[in-house]
Amino acid sequence: MIGLLRGRVIARHAPSLLLEVNGVGYEIEAPMSTFYDLPAGDAPVTLFTHLSIREDAHVLYGFVREADRALFRALLKVNGVGGKMALAILSGMTAQAFAGCVEAGDVAALTRLPGVGRKTAERLIVEMRDRLDGTQSPAAAVLPATAVATADGEAVAALIALGYKPPEAGRMIRAVATEGMDTEDLIKAALQAAARR
Q1: Domain end residue (candidates: 142, 161, 187)
Q2: Which domain holds residue 179?
Q3: What are the Cα distances from residue 130, in Å, to 63, 95, 125?
Q4: In this structure, what CATH number is given to the domain that contains residue 10?
């Protein structure tokens, strides 16, 4: 199993990236949260990885944070959730926000994620509660104590729910984000900027 890779990103085409490690290029699928956190240029990066072996392919998934990989692995154990949907979930909301949705039983928030219908959202809530340590909250089980949901992440998730592609949604929010803006202000500013184009 390949658990961690350290190297330089030489190509980025969301959701795939090409990571060069000692002269070997690894094709890696990654959520948008990882793309946002990658250093600019070809600065060294460390990715926590998960290797999925199927009949027709070996797929390597990469994450900047170990908590994201832990959530990804937990999601893969949910009936009906594959790698593509798990990446969409991690692209659409932070692990902290997802854990909060599970804890609160917030079906509506989960159905705003691409590809997640009501039945899948309900299954995620039921099965993820079972997969997380019962002695602590889902947020504590999945995330380090320093992780927090951000207005930027929630705004990106909202734009994705409106039909924008994750890379485009991320660019729209970064273009208008200023310190102190809440989620609603970010969404409004991004949509107004898009309308002016």
Answers
A1: 142
A2: 151-196
A3: 24, 17, 9
A4: 2.40.50.140
The answer to whether the CB of 89 falls within 8 A of the CB of 113 is yes
User: Which pTM was predicted?
Assistant: 0.65
Per-residue pLDDT tens digits for 11-43: 998 889 999 999 999 999 999 989 888 888 778
126 class by beta-carbon count within 10 Å (0-12 exposed, 13-18 middle, 19+ buried)? middle
Contacts 24+ apart (CB under 8 A), 75-79: 75/124, 75/128, 76/52, 77/127, 77/131, 78/123, 78/124, 78/127, 78/128, 78/131, 79/123, 79/127
Which tens digit of pLDDT belongs to each residue from 48-83? 999 998 888 899 999 999 889 989 999 999 888 999
